[in-house]
């Protein structure tokens, strides 16, 4: 019952009528039905906005559509405020309370007076509200926080996670939400009375209309040139929510914040803000003949975004998977101060010279709840034990003589010696792993140590692999004269698996346009990206590039790289296709140099450059200017050797090599012993 037909996003304003011409800092609203977006609506004042919402809701109600409507102001105040004012913790009782008292017209409203009255009702008029935007003074409301005192928390719990969020106690000024909240909640209260509304997260979003609190800046970046920020933001938020799968929406709505409310999407920022791939994402600047490798890479980096879905899984199952959202420590590491050695603990450092301390009975071992030690006494402590109260310093057992209920040792010893401070490694609430990271075994340790449970992971990228060419027969089968074995598919499957993606074998296709088209059509629903080899150039039998060209979303990337003929990059029914050259050497080099970082991004990982090392050459070579060259290479005795032949059909050289030597674009004469850049296959993830 969580599917919504209509998503509405509203950017509220507590300012007065903004005039007939659409402008910023007014109220803006956007409607998105199943991905189809209406143009953002400009609402010049709150009364116009309320009428517009009523009319929209009546129409949606008549059409039997379920509506999720987001508003950009808090739905609740910090804990305790509702009860102090209304006698009830129920935030919706507070909504009613406010709606009865807020007076609002297009030209003015009483929010400052009401804030002052509340301050006086709750105490001596020093808080919680502050800021008066009017010329006249208001009893109980300070202009600039002078003498300010707030009996409640400054911010709600969710706002600690929302960097830059304003406190609801500030009633005006740039970015303030206090005024929007009072006026907005009053309007929403009237809508609640008129329609079947559930207010999230106080009520399960199961009514025909569900209201959620949104904060567009959480997931929407700056507006494109010439567009009004608020208009752009509401349209984007509506699109982001509309594009979510039902189970993801359910995950994001599973929030427990019964009094303060919650900002929708907190903790899911990366997922929500990922834009869809554009159909022209592989377009190249016109007129450029040979694109340098770095420029080609920059284009991929700029244009590509994650295409994989997201799932919630226990952290223990995350090895090799990509984080969709950052992981925050639920617990400090270490959680308590503890001893780093076996020894004796006591309070404070000691000067040089001999010391004798009475030894308390018992001991503190790892796993024991921290006990207590009297001042002036020492206690036996074992590595990892939480320090008992009254202990902050430990002396090594090797440096101590124990006799007759005392310990004896020589100073000096510094206060805090041989102990670990609580949180010295990680502090609770800190981001420990960034979105886009591929989880390593060490990450599993870090997450375990900091109490991580479920995390948001990208689903594995499904990569379809297709070989093209009339001459190809399957590896292991009999080849007749004129035929060769398909070597690229086994190789590219291995590459894709090593990269951590899921391989989907699309088999071989002949040099026939209709057959190839059928293959691509069949694949497009089942894979996230397609890697093909062969037929990527511009010749008679280069059907891959011809087909992508026909689809209208193709670019032949002539890249200044050797080995490597043109790459055919395009979109096939929304799926990106990397048409690699047929030559196995060129196919591998292009897969490592271009397809690897591109597929990483599609999979939700961060862009990464392979780590290279400058090492002396064990070869000599003269190269012409213009292209970047990759040589099959390996490291022996600290020097880079290269394969004897550079022929791009020499598969044995690929197998001989353990990495690539990268020679930059300018002409060069490499002499033995000169430094060259060596990139081990391992740096590419192989
Ligand atoms: P193409 O890019 O289709 O013009 O192919 C360039 C060269 O690579 C030709 O010699 C092809 O026979 C060869 N080739 C193409 N695909 C494969 C493959 N899957 N395995 C081995 N060689 C291939
Ligand atoms: Mg071919």
From TrEMBL:
MoaB/Mog domain residues: 464-601
Names of required cofactors: Mg(2+)
GO process annotations (BP): Mo-molybdopterin cofactor biosynthetic process
GO cellular component: cytosol
ATP-binding is among the record's keywords: no
UniProtKB keywords: Magnesium, Metal-binding, Molybdenum, Molybdenum cofactor biosynthesis, Transferase
An example Gene Ontology molecular-function term: molybdopterin molybdotransferase activity
EC number: 2.10.1.1
Keyword hit for Magnesium: yes
Pathway noted in the entry: Cofactor biosynthesis; molybdopterin biosynthesis
Gene3D superfamilies to which the protein is assigned, alphabetical: MoaB/Mog-like domain, MoeA, C-terminal, domain IV, Molybdopterin biosynthesis moea protein, domain 2, Molybdopterin biosynthesis moea protein, domain 3
InterPro entries named among the record's database cross-references: MoaB/Mog-like_dom_sf, MoaB/Mog_dom, MoCF_biosynth_CS, MoeA-like, MoeA_C_domain_IV, MoeA_C_domain_IV_sf, MoeA_linker/N, MoeA_linker/N_sf
Catalyzed reaction equations: adenylyl-molybdopterin + molybdate = Mo-molybdopterin + AMP + H(+)
Classification via CDD domains: MoeA
The protein's enzyme class: transferase
PANTHER family, per the entry: GEPHYRIN, MOLYBDOPTERIN BIOSYNTHESIS PROTEIN
Role description: Catalyzes the insertion of molybdate into adenylated molybdopterin with the concomitant release of AMP.
Family to which this protein belongs: Belongs to the MoeA family.
Protein name per UniProt: Molybdopterin molybdenumtransferase
Organism this protein belongs to: Sulfitobacter geojensis
